[in-house]
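Researcher: Structure for this, please.
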Amino acid sequence: MKLTKTEIKKICEEYDLGKIKRVIYLKEGMISHLFIFKTDNGEFMVKKLGYSLNDKYWAGQKRIEFGVLEHLHKKNFPYSIPQFMKNKKDEYILKIGKSLFEACPRISGRKLVKLNDNGWKEMAKAMALY
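Model: Predicted structure, token format:
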């Protein structure tokens, strides 16, 4: 999956990501397509949504998702979580043609394949705080 130069430029402009240095496609996405945008302003995760928001379920689901994440940030949740950015239209979702995008600063970390006892305890602690 690749993005066009026009899409990349528009995403960078609308979310004020800076000048693009490199775009990396992550094959992990099952529903949406995930990209890392490396720019002169840092690294960002960009998601090309694999569904339409015209459906009431998805439109409501996205409002809930953004609302919960905003709430957790306001309450200083002690774990790293995505903080989706608003574009120049003060919206989280950017529409380019028929495609929908969202962006957030990239959270560094490592991919866990298997949790050990400490990992399970930490996950339980995060859920309890949530």
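Researcher: Any notable elements?
Model: Residues 56-74 form the longest helix (19 residues). The longest strand covers residues 20-26.
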